[in-house]
Amino acid sequence: MIGPAAAADYPLRQVTVIVPFAPGGPTDTVARIISAQMAKSLGQKVAIENVVGAGGTLAASLASRAAADGYTLIAGHMGTHAAAVPLYPGLSYHPTRDFEPVALLAGTPIVILARKDFPPKNLEEFAAYVRANTERLNVAHAGIGSVSYVSCLVLHRQLGVKPTGVPFGGMGPAMKALIAGEVDYMCDQIVNAVPHINSGKIKAYAIAMPTRSPSLPNVPTTAEAGLPGFQARAWIAMFAPKGTPPSLVVLLNAAASHALDDRAVRDSLQALGAVIPAPEQRTPQALADLVASEIDRLTPLLWQAANATNGHDQPWK
Amino acid sequence: MADLISNLALGFGVAFTPVNLLFCLIGALVGTLVGVLPGIGTVATVAMLLPITFGLPPVGALIMLAGIYYGAQYGGSTTSILVNIPGEATSVVTTLDGFQMAQQGRAGPALAIAAIGSFVAGCVATVLIAVLGGPLTKLAQAFGPAEYFSLMVLGLVFAVVLAKGSVLKAIAMIVLGLLLSMVGSDVETGAARMSFGVPDLADGFGFAIVAMGVFGFAEIIRNLDPGTDVNRSLVQRPVTGLMPTRKDLVDAAPAIGRGTALGAILGILPGGGAVIASFAAYTLEKKIARVPSRFGRGAIEGVAAPESANNAAAQTSFIPLLTLGIPPNAVMALMVGAMTIHGIVPGPMVLQNQPELVWGMIASMWIGNVMLLIINLPLVGIWVRLLRVPYRLLFPAIVVLCAIGIYSINNSPVDVVLAGGFGLLGYWLIKQDFEPAPMLLGLVLGPLMEENLRRALMIARGDATVFVTRPLSASLLAVALLLLILAILPSLRRKRDEVFVEPKD
Amino acid sequence: MGVEPSEASGRSLWPRWVRGPQEFAGGLTLMAIALLALWAARDLSSMRGFSPGAGTVPRLTAGVLLALGAVVTALGVFVKGPRSARSAWRGPLFVGLAILAFAVSIQPLGLPLAAFLSFMIAALATKETRWGQTTLAGLCLAGVCSLLFPFVLRLPLPLLPRFLMP
User: Fold this and answer.
1) What pLDDT score was predicted for residue A309?
2) Which residues, in sequence order, are bridge partners of residue A50?
3) In terms of Cα–Cα distance, which of A35, A57, A54 is closest to A46?
4) Distances in Å between the alpha carbon of B415 and those of A91, B167, B213, B230, C106?
5) Which of C87, C108, C127 is the last residue of a domain?
6) pLDDT one-digit tens code per residue, B281-335
7) How close B74 comes to chain A (CA, Å)?
8) Under 8 Å CB-to-CB from B250, ≥6 apart: which residues?
């Protein structure tokens, strides 16, 4: 089928990138921006196919079963390619065993956000306040396993507290609740938060990455604000089905990496608050390591949370 | 005031450029097409067409998407009236009297009044967005989880009130709808509930699947029963006049006004607002009518009020999007996506940084409404002619179109089979004199109701009294209770009378 | 229509002590659905402290439906009510089969063939069908759908049967 000359001819027809969410979400936006640029260097159309359902695992399951010929790829993220492992014991694919990592596309930093009249003035006061008032606090999240849930879980581990988590259908409704003051605080991706922080409807305590974000220059990093141990981010990466010839993976990786060096692509991604991975973070091996370490990190964290609350009625058992 | 006029002038300046007018027209046309084809959801189409708009200028893209959204709302009511298939949750109530009117040969006036009502509502709501956008957002903010839960309870009571037959059966159907809505992923854990291990059920029963089943397929099967030829020939009866008479307009005018007001207010509440608005408007009309028994038997107010309400609500649902950047429904979420692709982060800053975008869109909503009226009134004649196609050819075509529509939502054959199953269940229940409309409302409001119930209880640390101690929530529940009593009393009285009267048929 | 329910205008599905067959049949259906839901929700978690679990609300709702179903069924036993309207097997069978045929054939056979097949099977549901006319209408519908959905609305529907795909 695919001989040694495969890479020379590739791509002969349109390449499809499966996005596990509806159009317009952060994953979709990032995938569209990068694949449009990749299409230029590959010399073929790159189509986006949105497959929605079951927290993205439906799409990942579909992609894992697709032909390993380089014509079907998936834009996976922290949920589908790490958190899903402990959350869905009956998962029909495994992020490392059923996929060839292609390239890390983007990271999005996490911000600690609170309602605008939340008493603490800075992150140190925040930590003290949360420890002192754990019983009374409500923390919004978008469901167990979501980026917002995992990020605040890590924060709470560090503070040694367990406040009440209030689940929302998505971060949109959660943001509305935070603005209205129904919940006290939450950990959210920077993309969603910037306009509300700038208009003073909510406040931001710190950004959980090593450097400040250009879109929020006044928000300190967790290290600056006195909680250096708390680092959290969400990531989006490209994967191919297992068995895709290494020559094609190299080619696709080069196309993705090339797209990340493009001026216009960088500008659009940065406007979204996304962090563009450095060249050494973009290799297939770096992505493989990232996925493995994320699974190791999230499995013990989520296993307990998921199994304390889930029934046994898991999908794809 | 001067501000408002200059803002609107800016908006119309942007919207009236030939290119943007063209985008608006294309959007309205595609939207109408999508709405008229049973099963093809607005969300699916907007999702499919979204990539095309990425190549357009941002204002043009948003104008076109808004056009699709309104067009689909208009088109959805067309199928409700002609073939008893609601295109969207907001046009479920329209089937009650709209389809009856069509069966009496008055499809023309029903379609025309739906278009006129929507247009009036659209005009009023556009002005409302421009004038009261800011203050109205405050109202939406006053709604916490407890208030939302109580609002949903009120919404479900509306469904009881609008039932034609037994109140008990209507309540049972609502509860069945609630139960069906709980199939699928749990809001907290994301785990599939009651899905019997079927991956296609992991996200629950979609509205379109159930609606196509219990309205579309069940209605067709019922029409095929021997003995219903009478009904069918009614549909085929020569159409008497395409346009509403003066009397129709006089009857419908106050209903349009009340529907618009209710819709404009409830539309601001993201999630369920527009659906509840259409049910609330219908309930109001039925309650204040001199002869409530006309409703469900082809009352023109029963079409005018919910159609005005759902369109007003569709317009004012833009308010939370424009002021907070929070999309009230799935279509809006896609539009937010379109904005971010164009590098616009929705929210309060857009109004300051890109006024031409916001006001251009507001103005284009109004222009879109005019265009839809111009497109739809002449179309009424074509739709009505469609009803003259012999039923033996019409019904297999509807079956196929519904099947394609359902399949296209998720490219899932299982969804098509599920809709067929709901068709058979719906047919069986209709045979036993259960009405499907209350069940659909339960299905739509169920998830919101459960989520908000759980959220309210968690935030209140399990104290169930929050629902009656928060004033807004308490008053919503009080209204719900009052309406329920009003609904049950006459039926109890009727029951007592029936003991002495032989059942009629 | 207009016939006294007790009078024999056909066989009744139910024993004589069922006085309201509609209520009786409908109530039993609801109870069956409620029991199925209770069974399906048996493993879902219930209240943990003050926070309702995944199974709390579904079980509660299924319980309410079971109770309502029981009341409706009881009414069917004790209160005289209308008979169920007569049903036919032809409509449900062929419409059901047409839907099923579309579901199984859309992916392997593609849109035009699946639409035509489904149209023809649905047409079996009535005795009024004139086959020449129906075949022509079915071909037209399949043609129009094949242009409308994939091209005008850009929905990703397969057009060719899978065995003809490159």
Assistant:
1) 46
2) A19
3) A35
4) 22, 31, 10, 33, 12
5) C87
6) 998 898 888 888 888 888 999 999 999 998 888 888 777 777 666 666 667 767 7
7) 24
8) none
Same domain, yes or no: C23 and C70: yes
Same domain as C106, residue C80: no
Smallest Cα distance from B355 to chain C, Å = 32
Contacts of residue A147, defined as CB under 8 A and 6 or more positions apart, other chains included, come to A78, A79, A110, A189, A234
Rounded Cα distance between A29 and A35, Å, is: 10
Q: Are residues C68 and C96 in the same domain?
A: no
- Please name the residue of chain A whose CA is at the shortest distance from the CA of residue C50: A164
Task: Kindly determine whether residue B51 and residue A32, on different chains, have CB atoms separated by under 8 Å.
Answer: yes
Q: Which domain holds residue C150?
A: 90-164
Domain count, chain C: 2
How close is the nearest chain B Cα to the Cα of C57, in Å? Answer: 7
> Which chains touch A (3+ CB pairs under 8 A)?
B, C
pLDDT digits (tens, 9 = 90+) for B348-361: 566 666 777 777 77
Do C78 and C95 reside in the same domain of the chain? no
Q: Would you say the C-alpha torsion A62, A64, A66, A69 has a positive or negative sign?
A: positive
A chain contacts of residue B194, beta-carbon cutoff 8 Å? 313
Put simply, the answer to whether B403 touches C30 (Cβ < 8 Å) is no
The answer on C79 and C6 residing in a single domain is yes
Instruction: Let me know: does B111 contact B81? Beta carbons within 8 Å.
Output: yes
Task: Look at residue C76 and give its three-state secondary structure.
Answer: helix
Give the pLDDT score at A142: 83
CB-nearest to A198 from B144, B326, B349 is B349
The identity of residue B327, as a single letter, is: P
B439, B214 contact by CB (below 8 A): yes
Separation of alpha carbons B270 and B322, rounded Å: 12
C74 with C138, same domain: the answer is no
Q: With a CB-CB cutoff of 8 Å, which residues 22-41 of chain C face chain B?
A: 22-23, 25-26, 29-30, 33-34, 37, 40-41
* C123 and C148 share one domain: yes
Sort out which chain B residues have CB atoms less than 8 A from C57's CB and list them.
Answer: 182, 450, 453-454
The continuous run of DSSP H or E covering A233 comes out as strand A233-241
Shared-domain flag, residues C74 and C119: no
Q: How far is B65 from chain C (nearest CA, A)?
A: 14
- Put simply, the answer to whether A49 touches C156 (Cβ < 8 Å) is yes
Domain end, chosen from C68, C87, C106, is at C87
